[in-house]
Model the fold of this input.
Amino acid sequence: MNTRIKFSILLIGVGIIMAFLPFNTARSFQLKPDELLSKTVSDDIYFSVDQVARFINNEDTTFQLIDVRSAEQFKVCNIPGSINIPFNDFSNPKWEIYLNQKGLKNIYYGNGDQKASYAWTISTGLNYGNNFVMKGGLNEWYKTVMLSQFEGENITPRENALFENRFNARKTFTQINSLPDSLKTHYFNAKHLQTSKLDGGCE
Amino acid sequence: MKELKNLQYVFLFLIIIVVLVLVRSFNPNLFRQVPGTAVESAQNNSNSITLAQLESLKTQYLVINLGSGGKFDSIRIKNSINVPIENLLDKKNLTILNESKDEIILYSADVSTTAKAWVILNQLGIKKLFILAPEENSEAFIYIFQPDTTVRLENDSI
Amino acid sequence: MGPLSILSEFPEWLNLLIALFIGIGFGFALEQAGFSSSRRLAGMFYGYDTTVLKVFFTAAIVALVGSQMLSFFGLLNLKLVYVNPYYMNATIIGGVIMGAGFIMGGYCPGTGISALSIGKIDAMIFLVGGLAGAFLFAETYPYIQEIFLGNYKGEMRIDEWMGVSTGVFTFILIVAAVFLFWLAELAEKKFSRPEITSEI
Done:
């Protein structure tokens, strides 16, 4: 019963314990359930469509819009400047460099709130950067930004600013989405290329 | 005898590790699933059930209403209990959810809250979890976008 | 100590200080194991001294078990731990060159530095040779770039490739390690060279 045998028993014992570890936490959510729940009930994870319209008009570069709809729906029309990460493909590791960064805010939107909220919860659970949801999704965007008109006679300065914001965003949306397909694909690929260049490191 | 005593230290160490592992694995406040399962279950709305389908469902079900305050949101469904979202992970609620053999259907006035609660519960390992499809705010695009073919961006002044 | 979640809030200088102490500990361990002696290192190839196998295998197992256990208890975020990307061509060619260098010189880079620190002159020359090789690599990089970057497999991990869970792979590795240790003991008896082992 010399040291070698004791050492071997210790190693094999530890190995057997490891083989029977019940679950693997390496790929699960990094946040604890109650932490994730408290983030869920807080209100400052939403951006309204007017706020997003203002970001687009100001060409704000501190955020990225993520469209979680399918690729066909994205091609028909989408908010200018957004990238497409279809929800059905969400667990593909190639999207991780877009999601897992602390520099840009991630704003998810779908047609409604459902898929965007799924994406938000999964990203926040995995402790990826700052995650937000555009409330109402593209349906709300269309209703408010594209189709709303000013009714009434006198307009207050605040309403004036609001509608000017919407008109500018409406114009950008129509113009970018009306580009012929070839130009559109170039634009999106250029955006992808830009982001992938950031992943260099010391290799 | 001295060798046997040294061997006891080895076994003691192994037993301590086993105990720690067991304690950790029985901790209910832990996510055990891989996010891929949530993505798969939620694909193509396969976790969503409409009100009409619910009323014709033959199996037992339990509806959890996630609204808070006094507003027991408009739909009256039998077999529904009210669990405000802040209290979703309380011990007694978690026991109800874990031990229920019925299908569990989440619902609230705001589909965003329901969706997030669904992901959290799915990742805690609760099976047979569905959401009640909302009447409005669905995932279909209800407008038609007309491209403006007269757009010539290169003529715009910068 | 970034990936350790309980310690990840440390300021940068404290992380670097901990890294310094870890490095000192590593050098100390290498020297204590006797790796400053080139004869002990070369013994791994001739069979009369298998300390290298035992020390490095034990280190690998401790690291594997330790990181898996810490991740299980939520203390270590394994996603933040860097996994070397796998370039098959580069690994094979580099492995052959390093193996040849190891047996000829009797040191590998880490043990070369630990031997240098006790004043061995052959370690000094060995390291100069190593640096010359690195310089040559950088100068000829445009010509060998294609070979170097060929056959990229991504960040492959054996347990994913084999399709088993990490725990099962750890068990397989430990069993393999114990078997190899036993084999190493047999080899030491068979290839023993008492005239060398009594001196190192």
